[in-house]
Amino acid sequence: MQAFTTLTGIAAPLPKANVDTDQIIPARFLKSIARTGFGKNLFANFRYNPDGSEQPDFVLNQEPYRKAEILIAFENFGCGSSREHAPWALLDFGIRCVIAPDFADIFHNNSFKNGLLPIRLPREICEKLMEDAKLGGNARITVDLERNVVVRPNGEEISFSIDPFRRHCLLNGLDDIGQTMQHTTSIDSYEDKQRQAQPWLHAAENRL
Amino acid sequence: MSAGKPRTLFDKIWAAHVVETLPDGTALLYIDLHLTHEVTTPQAFEGLRMAGRKIRRPDLTLGVIDHNIATDASRYTGIVDPESRLQVETLEKNAAEFGMPLIPLLDKRQGIVHVIGPELGRSLPGMTIVCGDSHTSTHGAMGALAFGIGTSEVEHVLATQTLLQKPAKNMQVLVEGNLAIGCSGKDITLAIIGKIGTAGGTGHVIEYCGDTIRALDMAGRMTLCNMSIEGGARAGMVAPDETTFEYIRGRPMAPKGEALARAMEYWKTLPSDPGAHYDTVVKLAAHEIAPQVTWGTSPEDVLPITGVVPNPEEAKDEARRAQLRRMVEYMGLTPGQKLTDLKIDVAFIGSCTNSRIEDIRAAAAIAKGRKVADGVRAMVVPGSGLVKAQAEEEGLDRILTEAGFEWREAGCSMCLGMNPDKLTPGQRSASTSNRNFEGRQGPGGRTHLLSPAMAAAAAIAGHLADVRDYQPKGSL
C-alpha cells in the first residue's frame, strides 16, 4: 500500500449527499479481476453519455478537475455496496483524499486499506472547502496527515481527528495482514479453545 | 466488559470472538464463516498468491457463483459475456488452487450467497459471518453477527481467519403489535429506513426486537436484516428463538443429534439480557405500517402506497430541494402524482432480499388466477436451485407462468445490473430488491422497491398498486 503523508492538490467539488458506491463505480464495471483500470469508469453514469462521449457538465470532465487529487462531498459518502472497486476507482483516477461530513462504514474501512484518506469534517467546514474547490486550479488544498490538518487556500488550518492505528498504517503504508500474522499464536490458542467450547463450528458436517 | 453487566446479543457474540484487543481498542475478531463469490474475491486471491499465503481455514470458507451469471438457460451452455466468464473461471481456479469449497454453477445448491448460507444450515446463531458483500447482514436473522467487508478484508480473513474491527454501537429497533394485512418484513424494513434515514444506523449494529419481529418467519427476518445496510448499519440481528431452531433442524450442514443439543444450549444464552444498554432506540407500531414503496433514488425516500410524489419545493433546505428535484426528474415523476398511477415496464421478484420460498409463495398467491398486464415484463428469480426445486414441487412455477411471469434460474439477476438482466434507460420497475440508486438496475433505469406481494400486484395492474386491492383468489 502506498503511504500517505501530505498532499497538496486540486480539489473537485461534488456537492451531493449520499454518493453511493453504485454512482462511484457502477456494477457493470466490476467484472475485472485486477485492482487497476477502474479510474476510466469512475462516476461513469455521470461522466459519460450513453454513446460514450463526455458529459461536459460533470465536474471531473472540466479543467482543472481532471487532475483533482482531493474530492469534497456531503453526508454519507460511499453508502451502499461493499465494493472495494469504489476506492480503487477513485485512486486510479488520481483522487487520494475524500473530505465529507461523514462516510458509510464499509467504504470508510476500504479506503484506509488502500491508502485513500477519508476525512470527516463538519458540514459548515465542508461547505467552505466546497467553495474553495470551486475556485479551481489556483486554489490548492493541502492535506497534512503528519499534523492532522487540512490547509485552505487562504492558509487557514483546520484540524481533523483520525483513528491513531489507521493513521499509523497510512503514514507508513503498512499492510494489515502482515501485522495480524504476528498474532498467529493467539489465533491458534483461540481456535483450540473454541474447538472445545463450540465443537459444532469446526465439525466435519460443515463441509460441502 | 465487567462480569454481571447486562449484555446485548451483539455484545455477547462480539466478546466471544475477540482473539486479542490491541492497545488502541481495535479487536482482532475471529470469523466463524467466510462466504465468498466471484466479484469481490479475485484481487484477494491474487494478493495471497503474491505474498505466498494460504487460506488458513478452507473448511470455514464457502464459495458460490451468483452475481455475474445469466438466469436463463444460457448458463447450461456456458457464460456468454467474456468478462463474466473470466471472473467465474477465476473463482473456480482459485477455489481449486487454494482448496476452498465451492458450490459449482450447475449444482442444485447454487444460489445467491445470502440465500444459501442459512438454507444449507451453514449460517448459525452465535457465529461471526462475513462476505465481500454488504448484504451479508442478512445472516443476522439467524442470531449471528454478520456483516459485509471489502476485498482487502476478504484477503485478511482468508489469510488469518480474523478481522481487525472496532466495536460498534448497539441500536435497538423495537416493533410491536400486529402487522396489517398485506404487509411483510419488506414493509417493516422500508418503514424503518424511512424513519431513521440511510445513515441512521451508521456505526451501529441493529437488533430487531418486539413481538412483531418474534412473529416473523425466518424469511421475513432475513429480509429485515438484509436491508440493515440500507439504514447505514453494518449488521442487523434477531435473537435466536424456537422459530430459528425449528428452521435449523435437519438442514444439511447444520449440527445434528448430540452436537445440535449442545449448540442449542449455547444459543439459548445469546438473547440480550434484561436491562441491556442500547445506545439508540427506535420504536415503530406495526399496525401503523401500510404497504410501502420507494418513489425516489434512495431507500429512505419511501411512502405508503396510498401516497403521492412529494413536491421538492416543500423541502426544508436548498440542498435537500436540489436533491429531490434531481430524484423527481430522474424518476420521471410529477409532484402530487399518485404512486398508484405510475405505470411499470418490469416487475422483478428476486434478490437476496426477497427470493426465498416464502417470498415466491406470497407472489404466487396474488398471481393465481390473474394475468400480468399487457406490456409488462414480469420475472421471478428464485434465490437458489433448492428454492426453485421446492417452488416447482409446490406448483408455484405453474401458477406464475400461467399468469405470465417468467420463471428463471437462481442468481442475483436484476438487482444490480451486472448480468444480462437489466433495465433499459427510462424503464420503470417494481422490484423486490434492496437498492433504488440511480442506474442500479441498469443505466437510466427507475426502481421502485416493494414487497413480493406488492410486486406481483403491480405486474398484474400494470402500475404500482395497493396489494390490499388484490386479495388472493383461493389458496395455493
Which labels suit this protein?
heterodimer; A: 208 residues; alpha/beta; 8 strands; B: 476 residues; five-stranded parallel β-sheet; 15 helices; 16% strand; globular
Account of the protein in words:
The complex is a heterodimer of chains A (208) and B (476). Chain A is α/β, with parallel strands linked by helices and 208 residues long. Chain A is built from 8 helices and 8 strands; from the N terminus they run E-E-H-H-E-H-E-H-E-H-E-E-E-H-H-H. Chain A has helices spanning 21-24, 44-47, 85-93, 105-112, 123-134, 164-172, 176-181, 184-197, and strands spanning 6-9, 11-14, 70-73, 97-100, 117-120, 141-144, 149-151, 157-159. Chain A starts with 5 loop residues before the first strand and ends in an 11-residue tail after the last helix. Chain B has 15 helices and 19 strands. The chains are: A alpha/beta (208), B alpha/beta (476). At the A-B interface, helix 4, helix 7 and helix 8 of A face helix 2, helix 3, strand 5, helix 5 and helix 10 of B.
What is the structural class of chain A? alpha/beta
Proportion in helices of chain B: 25-40%
Uncertain stretches of 5 or more adjacent residues of chain B: none
Task: Give the helix level of chain A as a range of percent.
Answer: 25-40%
- The number of helical elements of chain B comes to 15
Beta-strand residue percentage of chain B: 15-25%
Protein chain pair with the most extensive contact, residues per chain: A-B, 60 and 84 residues
What can be said about the biggest beta sheet of chain A? 4 strands, antiparallel
Instruction: Give the count of helical stretches of chain A.
Output: 8
- Major β-sheet strand ordering of chain B: 5-4-3-6-7
- The side-by-side strand order for the widest beta sheet of chain A comes to 1-6-7-8
Overall structural class of chain B, as computed from helix and strand content, comes to alpha/beta
Q: First CA to last CA of chain B: what distance?
A: 51 Å
What general form of chain A does the structure show? Answer: globular
Rg of chain B, Cα atoms, Å: 22 Å
